[in-house]
Amino acid sequence: MKRIKLELAPGVETEFVDRDRALAQVEEWAEKSTRWPVVIFGPEGCGKSAFLRQAAAVLRDLGYDVVYVDPLHRFFTAHTDVDEIARKLADAASEAFGIAQLKLATLAIDAIKELLDRWGRRRVAILVDEAFQAVGLDKAGIYVKSLLNLIEYPPRSYDGMVAVVATSEGLTRGEIGRHRWAELTPMWNMPREGLHQLYERIPGPKPPFEDVWRWTGGNPEMLARLYKAGWDVEEVVLHLMQNKKLSAEFVRRWGRWLVEAVEDPEALWAGDVPEELVRELEARNLVVYNMYDRRPSFWVDRPPPERDLELGIGKHVAWQTPIHREAVRRALRET
Ligand SMILES: Nc1ncnc2c1ncn2[C@@H]1O[C@H](COP(=O)(O)OP(=O)(O)OP(=O)(O)O)[C@@H](O)[C@H]1O
Ligand SMILES: [Mg+2]
Fold first, then answer.
1. pLDDT (tens digit, 9 = 90+) per residue, 72-121?
2. Whose CA is nearest to atom 25 of ligand 1?
3. CA 236 to mean position of chain CA atoms
C-alpha cells in the first residue's frame, strides 16, 4: 500500500505512519460497504484529516472512485477518471469563501450520485473532512441523513459504497447522536510507536522521546507545535491558554471542578458537575466527554487505555492532550 506524503511542520516531510489497524478498517469498509455513514471524532490534531486522506488513496487502490472534500480549506481530491467531476469540484472550490464551503460539502454528495447514475461506477467512496463546520452545526444531522440516504437509496445499485465524515467539533456529537443515522466512531491520538516514528523525522536536537510522549500524549499536532516553538513547552501551553480563552472569569466560575479535573478528568463524570461546564469544555475542545467503551470495534484505530492519569485519560472523560490539561492548570494557578 502506498503511503501518502504529509507535512508535519514547515520543512518536515513525512509519509503517513502507523495507524495499521485503521487502515485495515478501511479495507473492511471497502469490502462490506459502510452500513451507516461513519462519523469520526476525536481530539483536535490527533490525525483525522491525515487518516481520511490516506483512506482516499487506499480506496482508490482498491478500485473505488473516491471524492474527498475538505470544505473548510476549500480542498478536494477526486480519484476518478471522470474529468467532469473534478472540474465541478474545482469550480465550486474557487467560489467566494462562504459559498465554496457549503457547495463543496453538498457537491460531494451530488458527485457520488452522478458517478453511480450517469457514469455507471459500481464502487464509490465519499470522504468529508470537517463537514459540519461548513454546513453549520444545526445542519449536521441533516447532512449525515443525506449521506445515509445515499447509502440506502442510491440512484442506482452499487457493489461498494463507503461514506466517512470527520469532525473535531465536540458538540456535533449531541446533534448526530440523537438520531440513529450514523456510526459515531472515536479516534484517539497516536500510539507510542507511531509518535516515535514522527519524532524521529524531526531534525535537530530534541528532548528525550519520553518527555515528548508525556507532553503530547501521542498528538502529532502538539508534536509539531512543540518543534515549532523550539521545544519550549511553556510557550505552547501559554498559546493554548490564549486560544482557548481560559480567562480569569472562566476559571473563577468553574475553578472548583477544574481543580479536581486536572488531577483526574473522571471528576467531570460525577453527577453534580454542571452541564454548562461540560458543554464549555467540549465546545472549546479541551476534553473528550463520554468516551466510549474501549472495545476495538467501537474505535477507529486502537483505543486509548481505560485510564492513564499521567496522560489525563479517564474511563469516561479525557483531556485531549496533556498540554490541554496543562493550559487549564496554568490558568488556575494564575487566577
Ligand atoms: N499517521 C500520520 N502520519 C504522519 N503524519 C500525521 C499522521 N497523522 C497526523 N499527521 C500530521 O499531524 C498533523 C495533525 O494531523 P491532522 O491535521 O490530520 O489532525 P486532525 O485530527 O485532522 O486535526 P484538526 O482537529 O485540527 O482537524 C498534520 O501535520 C498531519 O500531517
Ligand atoms: Mg482535520
1. 999 999 999 999 999 999 999 999 888 899 999 999 999 999 999 999 99
2. 44
3. 21
